[in-house]
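This part of the workshop introduces the protein records we will be handling. A record pairs a protein's sequence with a compact description of its fold. As an example, a complete record with its sequence and its structure tokens follows.

_____
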Amino acid sequence: MKFYNLVIKYRLQIAIFLLIIGVATNVYAGFWPAFLAYFIAVLLLFGYFFFGPLRLIQEHMESGDMEAAEKVLNSVRFPNLLYKPIRSVYYTLKGNIAMMKQDFDGAERNMKKGLDLGMPMKEAEGASLLQMGMLCMQKNDIRQAESYIRQALRKGLPDKENQAAAFLQLCSIMMTKREFRAAKDFFRKAKALKPTTPQIVSQIKEIERYISRIPG
């Protein structure tokens, strides 16, 4: 696995090196002895432009090293050449990192590009729609936030933590709209999922303090 990651990381340099070897071999020994070097170089170049280095991001994301993950993303020089599903993931990841840096405009721009390209899995599309809804909440665009979050629930979310987060966001939106019965219903749905993420648990406890006192 480490060897494969090294190949992905340095495949452009390896491809150029093999092309130089191929040309030199072609000049001194003919085309067929140089064919293997040419062939491997072309495969590496194809992978570099068509698939990109996104596989390298996984270990950085798992370890929480977002700076390293961002460096990998920034190493993609020609994103429009990436295979469409991979390009969608590329823009989604850029949106996630921008959101973590509180660059909400950049996050929205990149995540819209990812959604427009189509996500490889419905659950991933649902998660992206949920994030778009949360972005709209940050920008106080309540109407658009509600639309995105409802779409996210229809598409499907990957786990109960995301589902609970979606219901809590809708609960907050309904309270803003003074639709208290709907707010209570969404709160009950979120609580019934028994989420364990500290931030979501904290939100449930905070809302629970006063939701029983509101009408509806």
